[in-house]
Amino acid sequence: MIYNRSLKDDYLNELNYRKSTSYIPFLLGRNAINYLADTLQMDNIILPYYICPMVIKIFKNKHINIYYYEQFDNNLAILEEDIIKILEQKIIGKTYFLWNDYLGITGDIPNKIYDVLNQQNIIPLIDAIHTLPIKTYQSNIVIYGFRKLLNESFGALLKFDNYNHSNEEELNYLKKLYYKIGFFIKNITLQNKLNYFNKFDFDSNENLLYDNFKCDEIKSKHLKLDYKIICKKRKDNFMFYHSQLSNKIDINFDNIECPYGYPLMVDDNRKYRQKLWDNDIHSFILWGELYEEKENIKQFKYVQKLRNSNLILPVNQDLTMENLKTIIRIIKS
Fold it and tell me: Which CATH architecture has domain 227-332?
């Protein structure tokens, strides 16, 4: 199976320690978003509609007013003027704007949009959940993610500048113990296919925000990773796909440092995904299931096309050239 396999020893470098005091570690990127939704006391959030439904659900559950925008057209070109029109409407209250660095290849918010955010007193957040913490953004608040990118259990890091907070001090011992017990019970119920412990569904009830008992593990792994090796391999794989596949994507290749995957835009992504799966090759569809609200689906003209056309090919750092050629051959067949 060509899959996001776990890290090899080649990518761990005990001597390559880097300071991580500016990051708050989390088990999952969604927990970092949940934490921000609580900490920042938001009144409003402006979100791309083409995004993980879990992100939208977090803000919905906290009764934060949501305004949506389309971030891309069918070829992943950024819709700057359309976004600016959304930002220039009158929104009352403390407002944040969330930008998705899609697959780690879209990059930072364009300067023109940053200018409007400053004029409107709207604070930018960067969702870089498919990105290692090597990329820099103008925003003071960035969520970096590891779990899916590297197929590791250790999750996410939150860059939260100008905010003196350490989540290690946030929870007392009893709360940590409660979370550990909750995870244990939840795992048992999943194994036995039982549903009567739903109160331990942390995504629904928002109990688990901080993941304190994973802090040391996350920090330790973060310090040991040799990002340069990982990033170069993933970027090389990305560029090989681009050289071999006829695929129109309108992106700035300067942003591609450590991509999550290669976005292949096809007529029927599920058909191509099945072809790959039949040959033991795993691919992704982001996001095939959107947050279903009829008025929003009708409002946006690109999200439906994107959900049915995007197919994310693996660029994992342990893929061989033969693996890549096999994937390309199947796509073209």
Answer: Alpha-Beta Complex (3.90)
Domain 20-171+206-224 listed as CATH 1.20.140.10: no
Find, among 82, 126, 124, the residue nearest to 104 by Cα: 126
Tens digits of residue pLDDT in 196-232: 333 333 343 343 334 444 556 666 666 777 888 889 9
CB atoms within 10 A of CB 294: 7
**Residue 40 per-residue DSSP state:** T
Give 4-53 pLDDT, tens digit per residue: 444 444 444 433 334 444 677 777 788 889 888 888 889 999 999 888 88
∠ CA 256-327-317, rounded to 5°? 45
Residue 100: strand, helix, or coil: strand
Rounded to whole angstroms, how far apart are CA atoms 96 and 37? 10
The residues, any chain, with a CB within 8 Å of residue 197's CB and separated by 6 or more, are 185, 186, 188, 189
